[in-house]
Amino acid sequence: MNDASQNDNEIIKSVLEGDTNSFRILVDRYQTIVFHIAFGFVHNQEEAEDITQEVFIRTWQSLSKFRGDSSFSTWLHRIAVNVCLNQIRKEKRLPVLNRISLFFRSDTAEIPPDTENPEEILIREEHSVWLQKALDSLPEKQRIAIVLSKYDDLSQKEIAAIINLTEGAVEALLQRAKRNLREKLTSGSKKIENKRRK
Hints:
- There is one protein chain.
- The protein is mainly α.
- It has 2 domains: 90 residues, Rna Polymerase Sigma Factor, Chain: A, CATH 1.10.1740; 90 residues, Orthogonal Bundle (Arc Repressor Mutant, subunit A), CATH 1.10.10.10.
- The chain contains 8 helices and no strands.
- Helix 2 packs across helix 3.
């Protein structure tokens, strides 16, 4: 039986029975489709190629879990979309931190601007690490409120509806979150500056 005449389920069965080389048939059959999905999300060829590779790694690792409740093609699409969304969330992480750091810049030590100077790049990365630590250390509701407010630009009314609190309670959360972040970021900036002087 040649590759073209084998359906996906037959190929999967062969792979799970030990003919691991047959997995290459699935890769050849679907890699262009997966690449197009990835490219539609990230609009970058190299990144889309990396995502395509990651999708098939995930598929290989999870193949024994495929139950055939849907077609393999549908199952593969779900994996592809999930990998793409995870990648997009990773890429959004730094802009989120940058936006919040800009909001607090007047209350903390100056965060170095973009530069190609290696020392300044290192300092900026250290500030980003401290900012992430500061955000992660906030109580959950404070963290949700500050991110929704400063990243998603939501109003206090919208945030209140999302986390099921009054607008007054959201305002108080934001005030506490801002105060906590200022304290933590100021402390982090001083430590980074002291480290730089040593």
